[in-house]
Specification:
By secondary structure, the chain is mostly helical. It has a single domain, classed as ABC transporter involved in vitamin B12 uptake, BtuC (Orthogonal Bundle). It has 15 helices and no strands.
Amino acid sequence: MNGTRMLFFIRRHMMIMALVLIWGLMAALTRGIFIAPGNLSNLFLQTVTVGIAACGMTLIIVAGHIDLSVGSVAGFTGAVAAVLQVRYGWNTSFAIAGALFAGLLIGVWHGYWIALRRVPAFIVTLASMLAFRGAILGVTGGATVSPLASSFKSLGTDYVPPVPGAVIAVVVVVLCLVFSFRARLFALSAAALGFFAILLANEGIPYSVLLLLFIVILFEFISRRTVFGRHIYAIGGNCEAARLSGVNVRAREMLLFPLFGVIVAVSGVVMTARLNAATTSAGVNMELDAIAACVIGGTSLMGGEGSITGAIIGALIMSSLDNGMSLMNLDITYQYVIKGLILMLAVWADISTRRAR
């Protein structure tokens, strides 16, 4: 294997190796508690909300933008769903639809200023971060809104029944085996088998984890197999070259931000369902976790490069650190320091490997 291929191999698998290393270290430091099925199942649940947001954030960063409003928008849309159900009596389906529509409108608002008026995304979303944090207080009246209907709460806390869950696991593993055989990525089927084995050894497959898997597959398809996805990568790689090649940059960005708004709303709904309440502090710092997940997973802040699966691995790394350090009763001061240093190392590794090309 020559130097170039070795560098490509390291870049492609670095975060997977880092995740395995972190799991091994946490297992040793917690005397096996970390890798117990119950804890790993809880870890996957903890990853869902940030993972969903990270799927959309990946495309935002790939396009050369950033979104600082994720936490506030997720908290706001989750509050909208809770208020519609608790105070206005809407059923679960309509309450969730209302939240998703709110996310769509927010995305259109962002797209208007960023794509059409050419205001930097950093400024637009920073303004929204502040505005929608205030909007949460306005919608909820500064109070916790609860409890939610059991059908709503089940989205964040309940599990697929054992038999359907086992069938889903078998189907997914078989599909992974077929894909692995064609692409020679045999680790994929092993990872899928291990993943479902852990979940089924506990209480089963959570509905929210199943939703995350669906979104990952959908966004992986959009980013890799559609014209829209290829245009987003082209815009992030070289916006002027993409424009000269015939890509309607404004139209693509005008579509990207509403799409992201809906995904953030989904994340907010799941977060609210898991808490069984809408709170005024919901989503605080969530945007930082989503951005960190993308960067740690290999998405370049320079634009034009990144993957959905990488972002999910990054989200798992962040959640694993939180979970493991909590099990170790590590002081919160050191938890923040360690997470910050790991984020810095991830960015440094990205820049270093790019320069080595």
